[in-house]
């Protein structure tokens, strides 16, 4: 189909380029780094060839989240967002933007989100998982109470928040030690991000800010398949929930979350996602440059769903969520 | 349907009973401990009422795996297996057995598996994830090289190996700290067991012992939904695999693994599993006493699959895998 | 779920009651006739018990369509519509109406549709398949050219048109002779209605009146499963379409048709329909009194789809299609 | 995948070639007639290119079934079967055969089936729907009592019976008059064959000969989607079945029927079929030469099912059903 919109589509600036090294074999680095730094050239050709009208761009990972010093994190975020705004201004018909945010300091994050949403006309934020705050070992997730004002701001600004993966630090996930092939998109990304999402659900933040919209990539980081069991294990036990939130996990998942197809071009999983969360909350994405646009598009254009859902997932859900057709 | 066979069905002996405390609220303990200790009484009534002909019984968790001293682990395993053999002998038409194994010492594990398979006529083994060896902090997974002779023995004895979940120890999974509601069957069980399974696949053990049969509970611990991405992320990168095994993860998954429905009574997930691994490798189970037999059976008897698959998943796959009809 | 809306829900007036005899065994007649004649009593109790907020009511079958004399057909339609309007007026919060139409004469049909839509505030029309015109053997389908003004009117009035089944007359479908068990809802209803729908698609009426909305019951009368083959058989043959319409059958199906679940409470078929036409075009219905409200509701409330789709199919699609919430 | 086996794969002899004219536009006739008459040349190239190891060949339609004179029908069947046997003898590793049968006379049909199964080593029979007997208007279906000895013979010979479509004669299906685009594979083939299959189910023939194996092409001629409704309409009516057979339609469908993918290369429908009848009863086929081998194979090799099911549907189900690996 033509007119597809993608929303997990990355770029790098010089300062963050090296963050993407190491995920792929060395002999891919030249290609990958070119892909990350390019916006107006090959990227547009790939989009043109594959019926992709728009990318909502975001900084590569982990970038800002891996800078323990909040002021340096903020500085980098601002620089990246400003560079991105310039690129978008050249082709606003083809590119829009997600903000990078210095989540190390909730106040700074709010300030930058507000600047991006109002002055730069960004479409939301994309954050690469937990932040390291102060020291590399001080890992902070956004269900922590100090983020409450941030979520209030995200709701107030109606800014969808894309929770993008990153690898756990080694001391937090020893199970992968000596098994580097399980890190990154193979497995660790999904587990890390799914747990972060579950922590948010359990925290009660969606009770306080029911208008929050969280986006998960990679067909939901495994959550759709397991969501029933998450709420229903030990069903004979009539016990009060033991977490702060008021409702079942699945209610937040169904009401506050959106999924994208980034990097998970599997029809079976897409069908399962449709049967769990419904096609109104699933959105096409490629995960460029870590995945090819043609791989994503060829699969999606032919995947075994209704044409009505293809249009929604491929385009109109995004147009609605990000108010793209009101320009 | 009548004649259902289940294979994630637990019991406890006095020495292991406390291992099941703490998972459920205190006011359930009386009921849960009764359920665990009973074999011939209420358990059979539940089975009778719900069309369940047979349970292949296994010790509760983590039990043997959590005893760092290998000799004590062996002692407990032997005692549990002997007690189980006695119970099975009373109603071999209704109960069969999986061996508990002192995996802390591969030689002891081999010896006990051999004893159970040949002398006690057990149907395989059920092991509760990693073992703590020597000290509680020394966590050992079975992809470690010292387990190669064990896997050789399991293949030689044609003993299906049920890889059952346990919680990670705290220092290995800090992400759950302060979020106990994510432990156990809600989430941590699945993640822990899925990674253990992936480590086995990557290790090459299935290249060396292609006849191995590994069983995963809970509809595959999330793996079916993510299996495509595990092998296909970054598909434009034409790189050699960076793990010891020769083939893709999914090939081992499709050829050496079986899934059960234990504790995951979700039709959508079952359909996805059928479309990923096929109905010949999915088997009914309840996860008694942590789940109710009626919850499992009522769901399964009505779940939206073909009657042919209902018969296979409910009964004949197990009869074939465990050679139950050749008695 | 509560708040369900159904739109294949029948009643009879004295003059049409006998039309429903013969479909069911004689010993059901007392119950069936009571069900057909009742509106405000047991019907409402069934709805209350099963979370059904509203029924859009329609006359039983074949009724008006089986009266060869157009004026008598019109007379009956008017009487039925007037009686229905009176019933709806008593509980407009629980009942709305579809018009019966004397399709024997397109002009009369237009006139009565207009009267019902504007003066009686009906929500559309429900017509029981082909009409017998002049003589019982003169069978007329609505793809005939004389119905063009009728379709123009239906589009202009934005009146959804429910194409309800009836049995073929014997000389038109000898294959059922001596096999009465294949008539009615078992098989002949579906075949008859599916072909009528295909004839409409091929006729070009949707090219001329693209705003037409046709509703099919019984999960689409078999069409979703076969729609691909209808357009794609002999795919190597690059031939011009040999029917009057401009586009493929499936394009009209996807853009001009809605399906209901009436009398087809099968999860597998619902999933297939979702994957063919999308959940925005599927609507809950029971087919009362030929089916039980509890059978429909118990199935639907638990069927294996997303909660988002349950809400849409159960209620909001109908509310939107019939502008029910704008009252 | 390699090694695929197909079983709705047609050829013509000179005498039957014209039977295939008229289904396709005239400018395809040269290509189609070449395809029908060729066996050892382009057909094998198509198979080689698309991973198809074997075709079980059958005569085109309606051929023998449309010859009212039984002796002439027999004569033609014998000639076609003998010619086919010669072709198969040249490449028994690539071709096997279904018998054409003069069903006009049950005794002749038995005799020819026996000759084909025992002397010619055919794998079963393929019959093109009803037969015209004596006169073109005398249409006979095989649920008629005179076919009982035939079904006894088919069971005794363990000969799977492929019930292939043909168009109804005009006087039997007036609904298609003036709508030729609904004839053939678009719609009429499926309806005609589905009803024939339902008549067989209702007749009790599967009670008397439970070993019968009937094969339906085109993903089951629409039956899987509607099978539930066929048995469950009017579920509140507790009535005795009103047809001769002892059990529900679906029980015969599930126990005596096999489906092929011929001409229906739709993943959604395949998934529905798997969820209705199970993957052990679905078999790959192309419908050559009316469909392309590459269309069938490219779809099937990538369709969203498990690899285990791909192997079964693509090859091993056929190998088992026709005992092909015992050569």
From TrEMBL, chains A, B, C, D:
One Pfam family linked to the record: Amidohydro_2
GO cellular component, one term: cytosol
Domain Amidohydrolase-related: 35-324
Species the sequence originates in: Paraburkholderia polaris
A GO BP annotation: secondary metabolic process
InterPro entries assigned to the protein according to its UniProt record, in alphabetical order: ACMSD (IPR032465), Amidohydro-rel (IPR006680), Metal_Hydrolase (IPR032466)
Keywords: Hydrolase, Lyase
Protein name, per record: Amidohydrolase
Molecular function as annotated in GO: carboxy-lyase activity; hydrolase activity
Record PANTHER family: 2-AMINO-3-CARBOXYLMUCONATE-6-SEMIALDEHYDE DECARBOXYLASE, AMIDOHYDROLASE-RELATED DOMAIN-CONTAINING PROTEIN-RELATED
């Amino acid at each position: 189909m033509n007119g597809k919109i993608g929303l997990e589509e990355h770029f790098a600036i010089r300062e963050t380029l090296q963050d993407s090294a190491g995920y792929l074999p060395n002999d891919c680095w030249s290609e990958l780094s070119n892909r990350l730094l390019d916006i107006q050239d090959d990227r547009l050709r790939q989009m043109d060839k594959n019926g992709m009208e728009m990318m909502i761009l975001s900084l590569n990972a982990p970038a800002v989240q891996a800078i323990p010093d909040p002021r340096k994190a903020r500085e980098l975020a601002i620089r990246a967002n400003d560079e991105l705004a310039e690129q978008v201004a050249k082709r606003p018909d083809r590119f829009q933007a997600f903000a990078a945010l210095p989540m190390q300091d909730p106040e700074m994050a709010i300030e930058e989100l507000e600047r991006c949403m109002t002055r730069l006309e960004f479409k939301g934020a994309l954050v690469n998982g937990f932040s390291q705050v102060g020291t590399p070992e001080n890992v902070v997730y956004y269900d922590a109470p100090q983020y409450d004002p941030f979520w209030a701001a995200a709701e107030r600004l109606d800014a969808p928040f894309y929770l993008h993966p990153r690898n756990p630090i080694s001391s937090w996930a020893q199970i992968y030690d000596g098994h580097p092939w399980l890190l990154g998109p193979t497995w660790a990304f999904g587990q890390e991000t799914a747990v972060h999402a579950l922590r948010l659900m359990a925290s009660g933040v969606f009770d306080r800010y029911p208008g929050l919209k969280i986006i998960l990539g990679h067909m939901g980081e495994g959550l759709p398949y397991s969501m029933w069991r998450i709420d229903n294990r030990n069903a004979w036990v009539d016990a009060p929930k033991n977490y702060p939130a008021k409702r079942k996990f699945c209610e937040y998942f169904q009401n506050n979350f959106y999924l994208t197809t980034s990097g998970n071009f599997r029809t079976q999983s897409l069908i399962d996602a449709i049967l769990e969360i419904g096609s109104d909350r699933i959105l096409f994405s490629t995960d460029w440059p870590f995945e090819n646009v043609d791989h994503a598009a060829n699969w999606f254009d032919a995947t075994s769903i209704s044409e009505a859902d293809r249009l929604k997932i491929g385009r109109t859900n995004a147009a609605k969520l990000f108010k793209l057709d009101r320009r």
